[in-house]
Write a structure and sequence with these properties.
CATH topology of one domain: Aminopeptidase
Bound molecules: zinc ion
Helix content: 25-40%
Structural class: alpha/beta
CATH superfamily of one domain: Zn peptidases
Oligomer: single chain
Radius of gyration: 23 Å
C-alpha cells in the first residue's frame, strides 16, 4: 500500500500576517497546539506517518508487505511535477498498490457531523475539475451609441442561464452511500427520511440543494469565476470572455459538462473552449468492500472508539487522482478530529494542530501499519 502526502503549502494571504497569533511559519508550540501554515493541510499527516514508521522501525518491526511513502511537493498547484511523476515512475517499475491513503476526509466532531456524534468519513471518491472559457465578440465603437447586443451582455446572459439550469442532482454514488451509512445514527425524523431514500429522494435532494456544501455533494457545480472585456468605460469591447469553473461529480464527465453548457447557453455567438490549465475527469469510485477500506475502518474503531464510520465524497481534488492507474483503490482519510472552528483555518489564518490530535494521528498510523502490513 502507499501512504500519500504533500509537503507544499498555500501562501499566507498578504495583509493577514499580523492576524496570526504566532508567526505563520514559526512552527510555534504553544497553548497545546503547533501553529504553522500547513499543519492541517497537510504536514500534520506527513509528519505523523513518518513518526509512526520511525517508531515501528525503532522497535524492530518488519512489515510482511511493502509499504510506500510517496510525498509530492506541488499538490496545491496540481501535482504534475510531484505525485504525477512519482506515480509514473512507480508504474515504470511495475509497482501496484492494493490501496493508497491520502488527505481528503477526517473525523468530524459532533458539532460538524450530521449525526451529532463523532463520525470518521473515508473519502472513496473525489470530484473532477474543468474550467471552460466562453468567448464572444462584440461590435466596437463609442459607448454613446451602443448596439442592442453587447459582448458583456451576451456573457452575462450565458452565466445566468447556466446558474438557472444546473447539471442534475443525484443521490447515486458515494453521497448516497454516505447517507445510507449514517442514516441509522441520524435524529428520528431524518433517520426515517434517509432510510427510505427511494420514496423521499426528491425531498432529500431539495434539502441538500439548500446548503452550498451539501449541494456540492450531489451534483457537478459550476462557478463563474472571472470575466474580462473592455479597456475603457466609454469604449464598446470587441471581445470578452468568461471563465466558468466546474467540479465534476463521479458519473458526469468533461464531455457531458461541455454538452450541457452548449445546450443551455444556446448561443452561436459564444465559443466554448476547454482551458488546458487543469483538466481532471472524476477518478473511479473506490470499493467499500475491500481489505483496504476494512483496515482503515477497523483502525478508526481502535483509535477513535466512539466514532462511527462512513464512506464519502471529497468535493475538492487530491493527489490521489494521479495514482488511479497503479492502485486498486484510493482512500482519502486523515485521522484528525475537526470541529467547525477548524474549517476556516485550512488555507486560512491561525492554522494549527493540537498536540493531543497529532499524537493520536501517530497512534493511528502505527495501528494501521500493524493492521495491514504486520506480523503482529
Ligand atoms: Zn492538501
Amino acid at each position: 500500500m502507499g501512504f500519500l502526502a504533500h509537503s507544499d503549502v498555500v501562501p499566507v494571504e498578504p495583509g493577514t500576517e499580523k492576524d496570526w497569533a504566532f508567526d505563520a511559519f514559526s512552527g510555534k508550540i504553544a497553548e497545546g497546539f503547533v501553529w504553522d501554515r500547513g499543519t492541517l493541510d497537510m504536514k500534520g499527516t506527513l509528519m505523523a506517518v513518518m513518526e509512526a514508521v520511525e517508531t515501528l522501525l525503532n522497535k524492530g518491526f518488519s512489515p510482511e508487505r511493502t509499504l510506500y511513502l510517496a510525498f509530492g511537493h506541488d499538490e496545491e498547484i496540481g501535482g504534475q511535477n510531484g505525485a504525477a511523476q512519482i506515480a509514473a515512475h512507480l508504474e515504470n517499475q511495475n509497482v501496484r498498490f492494493s490501496y493508497t491513503l491520502d488527505e481528503g476526509m477526517v473525523v468530524l466532531d459532533p458539532d460538524l457531523s450530521p449525526t451529532r456524534k463523532l463520525l470518521g468519513v473515508i473519502g472513496v471518491a473525489e470530484k473532477g475539475y474543468l474550467t471552460l472559457k466562453l468567448k464572444t465578440r462584440g461590435q466596437g465603437g463609442h459607448s454613446s451609441s451602443p448596439p442592442l447586443r453587447t459582448a458583456i451582455g451576451t456573457l452575462c446572459k450565458a452565466a445566468t442561464r447556466l446558474e438557472n439550469k444546473q447539471m442534475p442532482a443525484t443521490l447515486a454514488g458515494p453521497t448516497g452511500s454516505f447517507f445510507r451509512y449514517i442514516g441509522p445514527d441520524m435524529p428520528f425524523g431524518k433517520k426515517l427520511l434517509f432510510a427510505n431514500q427511494w420514496i423521499f429522494k426528491p425531498l432529500i435532494l431539495l434539502t441538500l440543494k439548500k446548503s452550498n456544501t451539501t449541494n456540492a455533494m450531489i451534483r457537478t457545480t459550476l462557478a463563474p469565476t472571472m470575466i474580462q472585456g473592455g479597456v475603457k468605460e466609454n469604449i464598446m469591447p470587441t471581445r470578452a470572455h468568461l471563465l466558468v469553473n466546474f467540479r465534476i461529480l463521479p458519473g458526469d464527465s468533461v464531455k457531458k459538462v461541455v454538452e450541457h453548457v452548449k445546450k443551455v447557453i444556446h448561443d452561436d455567438a459564444i465559443e466554448v473552449e476547454i482551458s488546458q490549465n487543469i483538466i481532471s475527469e472524476p477518478p473511479p469510485i473506490s470499493s467499500t468492500d475491500s481489505k483496504g477500506f476494512f483496515n482503515i475502518r477497523k483502525t478508526i474503531a481502535q483509535v477513535f472508539p466512539d466514532a462511527s464510520v462512513s464512506p464519502g465524497l471529497v468535493i475538492a481534488m487530491t493527489d490521489s487522482r494521479h495514482y488511479t492507474n497503479i492502485s486498486d483503490n484510493c482512500y482519502r482519510f486523515a485521522p484528525f478530529v475537526f470541529s467547525p472552528k477548524d474549517i476556516p483555518r485550512i488555507h486560512g489564518t491561525n492554522e494549527r494542530v493540537s498536540i493531543e490530535g497529532y499524537t493520536r494521528a501517530i497512534q493511528y498510523y502505527i495501528q494501521l501499519i500493524k493492521n495491514c502490513a504486520g506480523k503482529e
